[in-house]
Design brief:
This protein is an all-alpha fold and 211 residues long. The chain has ten helices and no strands. It holds the Pfam family NrsF.
């Protein structure tokens, strides 16, 4: 039997009571509820949130985070079953960093070189590194639970996808509170925080998603 045939046979034998999208949505509901409750209790929206949406830097920050969350969610869905076409989703994941990269280039032209370091460090770098993973823990657990409903062919990759998705959710929430809107700040500190959850998800996925 060819490897592809074996994968298909195992996939068919493995019960999946819920479709991947529905399983992910149902699992995410409590995870998101916990993350939003934690965000509301400890952080909250920035003052004058609605008026800030007119600021291109603030809007870009939100757009990048929410777009990353949406594309990471698509990536996770592609990993639910063996043989899922997930490589195209990986290419799409390059879109948010590319968009942020354009913002960084514009920022470098607008901001004086003497202020680049100050703008990059911002006001709350360490708080950012703590808050994003904290907000992403509950969604990460929820996404891993959903993935256990499927049969991921590559458990570590699926776990990393779960961590990336959870990190993007945490980043999207934190971005609504974060006082640092510079693309330079976002490009340095947000990826570090998201990478932590991605690595954690890969480790947990390798252990919990094997079948």
């Amino acid at each position: 039997m060819k490897t592809s045939e074996l994968i298909n046979a195992i996939s068919e034998d493995r019960e999946m009571p819920l479709a991947p999208g529905r399983a992910l949505c149902l699992a995410l509901l409590p995870g998101l509820a916990i993350a939003i409750a934690l965000f509301s209790a400890r952080l909250g929206l920035r003052p004058h949130f609605m008026s800030l949406l007119a600021d291109p830097r603030f809007s870009l920050k939100l757009l990048v985070c929410y777009l990353l969350a949406a594309l990471a969610g698509l990536f996770v869905l592609r990993l639910f079953r063996p043989g899922g076409s997930w490589r195209g989703a990986v290419l799409l994941l390059a879109l948010p960093p590319a968009l942020l990269g354009v913002g960084v280039i514009v920022e470098l032209f607008v901001v004086s070189p003497a202020d680049w370091e100050r703008t990059m460090i911002g006001h709350n770098a360490m708080f950012c590194l703590k808050s994003i993973p904290l907000l992403g823990v509950a969604p990460l657990i929820a996404i891993l639970v959903a993935l256990r409903n499927g049969a991921p062919e590559r458990p570590a990759v699926a776990g990393a996808g779960a961590g990336l998705f959870a990190g993007a959710i945490g980043a999207a929430l934190y971005a609504s509170h974060c006082p640092d809107d510079s693309p330079l700040f976002v490009a340095v500190w947000y990826p570090i925080a998201i990478a932590f959850l991605t690595a954690l998800g890969a480790v947990l996925g390798a252990r919990l998603l094997r079948w």
